[in-house]
Amino acid sequence: MEVADGFMNEYGVCIGSNFCGSRKDTLDTSHGGILYDLRLIMAQRAKTAREAVQIAGSLIVQFGYKGSGRSYCISDREEA
To answer: Which helix (H) or strand (E) holds 19?
Structure first.
């Protein structure tokens, strides 16, 4: 699927992601925001699924979110 991907790191944290477009025809991205790098950074830094979610939240608060919509499935061997 276009713009879908997944990551799994050395700690067994799995992050699957795919595009879920908005109903809006155009999206104001003039203020920047994070998109692709979000899931890459989660995979690089997180040792657990819970930590990946916390990392994502912190990055979105700091930089904003650029995409119109995306689904994330995050898991480790203990929880998802």
So the answer is: strand 14-19
